[in-house]
Design brief:
With 127 residues, the protein is of the alpha/beta class. A 5-stranded mixed beta sheet has the order 3-2-1-4-5, covered by helices on one side.
Length: 127
């Protein structure tokens, strides 16, 4: 019997900034996959809004939170704060794909998190 690939209704992009974690919903996935000129879409706020839309922003409340997140990211690990954000944002029933820039962090997220039920696991992409 053929195994059907999981359906992905929504691609999310994780971005860590010095102020906190941002999770964006991809509006135009085709533009995101054109990595050679991807930066061109983000040169203006209007251009960026045609590619991604902010879904959630989780502000670091203390400098220690930001330091712990930065340390975990450098080590390719998932901080407790990031785990909480992903549990809050990525709905277990939804069919979502999460894109992260760091392959080690992506592997860590995939190992720790469980996305979806019935075999609908998030695909972690490196861009």
């Amino acid at each position: 019997a053929d195994v059907e690939a999981p359906r992905v209704d929504q691609m999310l992009v994780l971005f860590e900034s010095p102020a906190g974690y941002a999770v964006f919903k991809v509006v135009d996935e085709k533009k995101l996959r054109q990595v050679d000129d991807l930066y061109k879409h983000f040169q203006t706020p209007d251009g960026a809004s045609k590619v991604v839309k902010l879904k959630h922003f989780e502000k670091f409340h203390e400098m220690t939170d930001a330091l712990a997140a930065a340390t975990a990211a450098v080590e390719g690990k998932m901080s407790k704060g990031l785990r909480k954000v992903l549990k809050k944002i990525v709905a277990k029933e939804a069919h979502e794909e999460l894109a992260v820039a760091d392959a080690k962090l992506g592997s860590s997220i995939k190992a720790v998190m469980s996305f979806g039920n019935d075999g609908y696991l998030a695909t972690l992409c490196d861009y």
